[in-house]
Design goal:
CATH class: Alpha Beta
Organism: Microcystis aeruginosa BLCC-F158
Pfam family, one: adh_short
Shape: globular
Mean pLDDT: 92
Family: Belongs to the short-chain dehydrogenases/reductases (SDR) family.
Number of domains: 1
Number of strands: 6
InterPro entries: NAD(P)-bd_dom_sf, SDR_fam
Radius of gyration: 17 Å
Protein name: SDR family oxidoreductase
Oligomer: single chain
CATH superfamily: NAD(P)-binding Rossmann-like Domain
Helix content: 40-55%
Length: about 200
C-alpha cells in the first residue's frame, strides 16, 4: 500500500487531501502542530477507510523542521510515495506595518520547509524510480498582490520552483505538480487577519 505525507494536515485543504487519499486506500502521515486535531482526524480515517495513519506533531515554522519530519519518517521505516507540501499561511496588511518576525515565519513555512521536504523526499523517490510531489501554491503566485506582498511572493516562488522540478524530473518517474487554488473554505482569511468586510 502506498503512503502519502501531508503537511498542514489539521485544517482546510490538508484535511481534504487526507480524506480523499484515505478513500483511495493510501496510508497517511499527517503533519501539523495541533495534536488533538491530527489524532481526531487519524482515528476517523482509520475507522472509516481501514488505512494506517501516522501522526507527526511538528511546528513547521521552526528552522530545520523539514529535517525533523524526514528523520521521524525514516525512524518509523516508512517509505513516502506522495509528498503534499500544503502547510502555509498569509498575512494581510501594508508590509511596512507588519510584524517582521511573522513575515519571516511565513517565508520559513511557505518556502524553506517546502524546499527542505522536497529535497529529502525526492531523492528516495528517484532512487525507487517513482513517486510524486504536490506543492500547494496559489493563484496569488501569478501576480504581485499589495497588502499580501510577502504571501504572493512566497507562492510565486512555490510555482517557479515546482515548474523547475517538473522539468528536471519529468523523465525520471517522479511527478511534480503545483496546485494553485483560489479562495477556499478554510481558516486562511482569519489567520491572515483580513478585514471582516473582505470575508
Amino acid at each position: 500500500m502506498k503512503t502519502a505525507l501531508i503537511t498542514g494536515a489539521s485544517t482546510g485543504i490538508g484535511v481534504v487531501f487526507a480524506r480523499q487519499l484515505a478513500q483511495r486506500q493510501m496510508e497517511l502521515i499527517l503533519v501539523a502542530r495541533s495534536r488533538d486535531k491530527l489524532e481526531q482526524l487519524a482515528a476517523e480515517l482509520e475507522e472509516q477507510y481501514g488505512v494506517k495513519v501516522t501522526v507527526i506533531v511538528q511546528d513547521m515554522t521552526v528552522a530545520g523542521a523539514g529535517k525533523l519530519v524526514y528523520d521521524t519518517v525514516n525512524q518509523k521505516g516508512i517509505n513516502v510515495d506522495l509528498l503534499v507540501n500544503n502547510a502555509g499561511f498569509g498575512d494581510y496588511g501594508a508590509f511596512s506595518e507588519q510584524d517582521l518576525a511573522r513575515q519571516l515565519e511565513m517565508i520559513q513555512l511557505n518556502n524553506l520547509v517546502l524546499v527542505e521536504l522536497s529535497h529529502y523526499f525526492l531523492r528516495p523517490m528517484l532512487a525507487g524510480a517513482g513517486g510524486a510531489i504536490i506543492n500547494v501554491a496559489s493563484i496569488a503566485g501569478f501576480q504581485p498582490l499589495p497588502y499580501l506582498s510577502v504571501y504572493a511572493a512566497t507562492k510565486a516562488f512555490v510555482l517557479s520552483f515546482s515548474e523547475s522540478l517538473w522539468a528536471e524530473n519529468k523523465d525520471k518517474g517522479v511527478e511534480i505538480l503545483a496546485l494553485c487554488p483560489g479562495p477556499t473554505e478554510s481558516n486562511f482569511f482569519e489567520v491572515a487577519r483580513f478585514p471582516r468586510a473582505f470575508m
